[in-house]
Write a sequence for this structure.
């Protein structure tokens, strides 16, 4: 249902390059072959009434409203399902057509309520276009006007009385989302839309992506927010602040009030689709828990005191300067987040490097995709994915390893499933039977169900088959890759100890499957690898990333559409926060701080001398804090207490510090250990850019004033000025201009160009003024591709009699990361707590049944979760999400980390589980501490001064 | 929230060993030692480097694997007699 009317051409755009000329209502028009008559007319500004057609879906031809006359043809063909032909002569308006259309519309109206008159639906516009003023058939016959509404979904309602059974919702669920939750049941007059087995939306398989709501031309499917607030007055294009897909949305507004988010048809990452988070889970932005005033306190046991911005900033600056005076320049640092915009992260690293005078800056990508940065830089020469999302539509073989796109990257998963339904082959490597292994009309050709922690063993055995069975793309390798490193790698991979047969006892994957999957990957046409945190969050995360790049180079599956190495980034701006120089050893654009020429360019622009040595990574900061060498920390938008491993180690480090500053929306877990709280702003309250997993830079646009008075970039700027390092940006666009001046891969980027093009994939510079969808086309960024050896080193986190199970972690569709945002929305109705998934056999052995409380103990700690018995788990492996702080998932994860980047090994923790009756000691202490902190927050207003 | 026992050297020893483990399969030992030393020089904050050098000097590299020791010795060499 439309509120702000967007142009819709009725049927999808044809990709043909062949022009076809025809005449519509006497006008000559030319469109690509394959275009429908409906679209050809629409593009020429001739509106043909229609109800069942929309350009987001394939034409269906059911409503009979779009009929036209075509010279030389009998009857009245539906223009939506009739492709153009050369020389065709079409008439769209005549007395006869008018009569037929009016008759169709009257029939609809006699049967269906016309819905809320205040809402400008497509139906209402068509009623006007067709010119129906009264319904001659009357309302007395059998009709659906009294049908009962389904209000079960928290975000939209279904009103069958207004449904005209046009099937747009059903087709949207099939074609766009790929969930196939909706069907039309019955025939003729009795036909109606049902969700799953007529269970109502909430109980059905519906994933609440909203595609049906967007597709509906009536008020039958309507957002509750729209019904409550009325139609929007304006709309602004912006970018989702959740996952790394980076969907483009129109924020529909009434004044400064958000009515709803509508996925942008022209969005380059999402093409008009969305998921339940970006579209609906927005309530956190106005949640009562938001803190809107700065607060300070001397000790973490003290009550908070609300203070003015001026006092909070002056206090922070003086504390940081005091600490530096007493403990040295390197005793403070900063942490940014992938939830911040590029401009914000850039400013934080600039504040640390230029203002604090050290390189102690890191970002949460440390704990997710730092191995991607390292591994792809070593092999290909650039720390980023190689393709755009649309590339998947050219892939013949899709290899998904350590990623669960249907939960974590839903909109891209829908696109991938579309390609799979068209016949692309699928290899899944994952310890769990993730949804993609088997979903409607999709069945993985291979599910390589490997033991957690054995990615490198599996990937090297795939390489063994490719090398051993003569599947190497010799010519490509000779032309594009280093001779020496390839020769060394070939010999390494060929060693018998790497054969699938030898590795079977390590990975648990049948050798025959590995061989067949390797052959498919190497010879099945365009093969593309998609991977996620199941690859990176291991003690060998970087090695696995390099193993993936090796496979792509060896088989020439890189450098064109349909192939490549595609890291699926967790949070919206993981790519951007890394690009912006948030790592302690790198300036923006992944250039080492030790590089004298690069450093000189920053020194000149920033007017200060900069350190040539790397600073502390996040885990190093904790170590240094416990050693008394690190005492002040500025954290923007990140919740290290909940998201970093070994919680008790993190909290001990924070308690050892003297000034912890948290800039965030809520009193998150880290803020409970803070001395200064600076209230941040949501993505709706500021301007900036995000960069998604495809290197796509998209604008975030301010649609309301910052509720705390300052956007986040302004707060950093205030702090910098107070610390004596001047920053005078008038707008985030000026920050982007500086980024572009100093970073070769961003040289051609500015806000005006982003406005003009909609989005840009970096590199964007003189060589690629409009950006780069596919990388490494003619040569690798580093010149020749470099093969790296990938020795399998088993994790030291091993199962034994005491800890016989492996715990692995992940995320779920409705919740996001630490959950600070999504927990404060109706999304918790789908997932209100983290659960421990256990294989039926493991559960039975321990007398555990569904919903029991189970204690989970690792070498690092203990926690308690409720059990879900699930055959998706292999025996010996248990699984949980980490969206709720009380779960303490990270109390049990260990200090083990990736050898190259210290990315934590979240995916492998040896544990034992037992049935218990009460929360763990940690949880009880946590609850008491957390309650106390909330009480201290409650006193803040009273202490205002 | 309890304080955990903190052993600063243990964390560094583990990090150095993990890096060395990656380079284990490098057939030319010289390249492996150089690779480990470079990795530490490139990514470790100077205070951490100083500590691991001091640890090696004081404890004879106890707990460090053989390649890690060689790489740390290489780093000490690069820094000259002052280190
Ligand atoms: S709910 Fe809307 S989109 Fe679905 S069949 Fe009814 S009118 Fe069409
Ligand atoms: S969470 Fe991700 S997939 Fe969902 S709407 Fe936002 S960017 Fe798109
Ligand atoms: S729009 Fe063509 S038949 Fe419905």
């Amino acid at each position: 249902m439309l509120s702000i009317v967007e142009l819709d051409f009725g049927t999808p755009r044809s990709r043909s390059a062949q022009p076809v000329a025809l005449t519509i209502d006497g006008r000559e028009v030319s469109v690509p072959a394959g275009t429908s008559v409906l679209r050809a007319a629409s593009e020429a500004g001739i509106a043909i009434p229609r109800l069942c057609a929309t350009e987001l879906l394939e034409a269906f031809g059911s409503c009979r409203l779009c009929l036209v006359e075509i010279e030389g043809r009998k009857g009245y063909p539906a223009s939506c399902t009739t492709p153009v032909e050369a020389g065709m002569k079409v008439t769209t308006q005549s007395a006869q057509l008018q009569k037929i259309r009016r008759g169709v519309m009257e029939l609809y109206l006699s049967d269906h309520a016309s819905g809320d008159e205040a809402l400008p639906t497509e139906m209402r516009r068509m009623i006007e276009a067709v010119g129906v003023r009264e319904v001659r058939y009357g309302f007395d016959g059998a009709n659906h006007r009294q049908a009962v509404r389904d209000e079960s979904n928290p975000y939209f309602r279904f009103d069958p009385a207004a449904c005209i059974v046009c099937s747009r919702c059903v087709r949207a669920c099939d074609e766009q989302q790929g969930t196939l939750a909706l069907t039309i049941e019955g025939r003729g007059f009795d036909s109606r839309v049902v969700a799953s087995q007529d269970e109502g939306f909430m109980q059905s398989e519906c994933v609440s992506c909203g595609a049906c709501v967007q597709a509906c031309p009536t008020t039958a499917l309507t957002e509750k927010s729209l019904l409550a607030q009325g139609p929007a007055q304006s709309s602004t294009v912006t970018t989702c602040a959740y996952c790394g897909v980076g969907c483009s949305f129109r924020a529909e507004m009434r004044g400064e009030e958000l009515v709803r988010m509508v996925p942008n048809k022209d969005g380059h990452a999402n093409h008009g689709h969305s998921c339940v988070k970006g579209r609906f889970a927005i309530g956190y932005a106005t949640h009562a828990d938001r803190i809107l005033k700065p607060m300070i306190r001397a000790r973490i046991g003290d009550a908070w005191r609300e203070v003015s911005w001026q006092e909070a900033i002056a206090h922070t600056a003086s504390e940081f300067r005091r600490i530096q005076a007493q403990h040295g320049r390197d005793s403070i640092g900063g942490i940014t987040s992938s939830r911040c915009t590029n401009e914000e992260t850039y400013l934080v690293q600039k504040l640390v490097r230029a203002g604090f005078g050290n390189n102690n800056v890191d970002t949460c990508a440390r704990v997710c995709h730092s191995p991607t940065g390292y591994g792809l830089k070593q092999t290909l020469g650039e720390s980023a994915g190689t393709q755009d999302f649309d590339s998947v539509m050219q892939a013949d073989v899709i290899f998904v390893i350590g990623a669960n796109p249907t939960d974590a990257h839903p909109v891209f998963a829908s696109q991938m499933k579309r390609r799979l339904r068209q016949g692309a082959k699928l290899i899944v490597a994952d310890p769990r039977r993730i949804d993609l292994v088997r979903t409607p009309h999709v069945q993985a050709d291979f599910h390589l169900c490997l033991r957690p922690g054995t990615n490198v063993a599996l990937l090297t055995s795939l390489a063994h088959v490719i090398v051993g069975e003569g599947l190497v793309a010799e010519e490509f390798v000779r032309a594009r890759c280093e001779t020496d490193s390839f020769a060394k790698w070939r010999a390494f991979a060929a060693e018998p100890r790497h054969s699938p047969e030898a590795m079977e006892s390590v990975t648990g994957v049948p050798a025959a499957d590995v061989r067949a999957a390797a052959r498919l990957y190497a010879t099945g046409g365009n093969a593309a690898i998609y991977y996620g945190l199941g690859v990176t969050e291991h003690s060998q995360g970087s090695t696995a990333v390099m193993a993936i790049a090796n496979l792509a180079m060896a088989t020439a599956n890189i450098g064109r559409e349909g192939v490549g190495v595609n890291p699926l980034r967790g949070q919206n701006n993981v790519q951007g926060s890394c690009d912006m120089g948030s790592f302690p050893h790198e300036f923006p654009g992944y250039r080492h701080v030790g590089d004298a020429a690069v450093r000189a360019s920053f020194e000149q622009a920033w007017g200060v001398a900069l350190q040539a040595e790397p600073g502390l990574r996040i885990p190093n900061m904790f170590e240094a804090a416990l050693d008394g060498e690190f005492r002040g920390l500025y954290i923007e938008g990140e919740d290290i207490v909940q998201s970093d491993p070994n919680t008790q180690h993190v909290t001990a480090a924070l308690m050892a510090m003297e000034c912890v500053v948290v800039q965030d929306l809520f009193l998150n877990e880290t803020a409970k250990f803070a001395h200064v709280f600076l209230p941040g702003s949501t993505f709706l309250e500021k301007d900036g850019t995000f960069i998604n997993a495809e290197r796509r830079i998209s604008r975030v646009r301010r649609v309301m004033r910052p509720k705390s008075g300052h956007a986040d970039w302004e707060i950093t700027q205030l702090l910098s000025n107070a610390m004596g390092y001047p920053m005078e940006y008038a707008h985030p666009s000026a920050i982007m201009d500086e980024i572009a001046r100093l970073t070769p891969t961003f040289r051609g980027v500015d806000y005006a160009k982003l406005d003009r093009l909609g989005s840009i994939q970096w590199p964007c510079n003189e060589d690629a003024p409009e950006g780069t969808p596919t990388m490494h086309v003619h040569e690798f960024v580093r010149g020749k591709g470099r093969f790296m050896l990938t020795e399998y080193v088993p994790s030291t986190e091993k199962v034994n009699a005491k800890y016989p199970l492996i715990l692995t972690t992940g995320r779920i569709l409705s919740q996001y990361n630490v959950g600070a945002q999504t927990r404060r929305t109706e999304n918790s109705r789908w997932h209100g707590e983290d659960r421990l998934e256990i294989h039926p056999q493991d559960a039975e052995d321990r007398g555990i049944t569904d919903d029991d409380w189970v204690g989970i103990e690792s070498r690092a700690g203990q926690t308690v979760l409720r059990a879900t018995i699930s055959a998706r788990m292999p025996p010996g492996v248990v699984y949980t999400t980490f969206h709720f702080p009380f779960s303490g998932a990270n109390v049990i994860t260990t200090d083990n980390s990736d050898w190259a980047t210290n990315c934590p090994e979240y995916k492998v923790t040896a544990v034992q589980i037992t049935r218990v009756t009460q929360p763990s000691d940690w949880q009880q202490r946590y609850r008491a501490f957390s309650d106390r902190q909330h009480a201290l927050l409650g006193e803040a207003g009273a202490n205002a001064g | 929230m309890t304080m955990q026992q903190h052993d600063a050297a243990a964390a560094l020893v583990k990090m150095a060993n993990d890096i060395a483990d990656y380079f284990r399969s490098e057939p030319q030992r010289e390249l492996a030692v150089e690779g480990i030393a470079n990795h530490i020089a490139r990514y470790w904050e100077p205070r951490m480097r100083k500590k691991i050098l001091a640890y090696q000097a004081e404890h004879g590299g106890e707990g460090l694997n053989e390649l890690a020791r060689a790489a740390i010795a290489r780093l000490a060499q690069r820094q000259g007699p002052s280190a």
In short: The first strand of chain A starts at residue 19 and ends at 24. Chain A has a mean pLDDT of 89. Residues 8 and 55 of chain A are 6 Å apart (CA to CA). The longest helix of chain A spans residues 309-327.
